[in-house]
Amino acid sequence: MKNMRDIGVARLREEPPGGRYRVLVDRLWPRGVRKEDSLWEEWLKDVAPSSGLRAWYGHDPSRYALFRQRYREELARAAHDTAVQHLLDLLASRSVVLLTATRDLERSQVPVLAAFLRETLGGTPTTGRPDLE
Predict the structure, then answer these.
(1) Nearest-angstrom CA–CA distance, 14 and 55
(2) Measured in whole angstroms, how far is the alpha carbon of residue 24 from the centre of its chain?
């Protein structure tokens, strides 16, 4: 297994665990947040689901299983290579928390992305959050 740091997931409005590099992984800028008030170190919108996939899913719980599958397929494509590699590089040197503005963290892209990163690094596919496992 490669050297792997901790990957956490959290909602933007929650207080993420301290000591981690915070990365917003939503394609759209969160409503009501001014850029100067951002609570993260980096915004990596290119790792988020495509606009078409995001619109199709629409946070419909009945579509989540298929959304997960389609998003994982997107993550494996060349279009996401640079963004995924950037996250892997960050994880080589520090713990990271993936942030999203969505209300339904359990059925968002964030646990899918965290599991994908862990699997890519040779780790166990988990959500990174005990209450979501």
Answers:
(1) 25
(2) 8
- Split at pLDDT 50, 70, 90, the class of 80 is confident
Could you give the strand order of the β-sheet that contains 7-11, starting from the edge strand earlier in sequence?
A: 7-11, 96-100, 21-24, 42-43
Domain ranges of the chain: 7-123
Task: Read off the pTM.
Answer: 0.84
Residue pair 4/93 in contact (Cβ under 8 Å)? The answer is no
- Which positions ≥6 away from 4 have C-beta within 8 Å? 91, 118, 121, 122, 123
Q: Rounded to whole angstroms, what are the CA distances from 78 to 40, 43, 82, 118?
A: 26, 20, 8, 19
Query: Which amino acid does the sequence have at 88?
Result: L
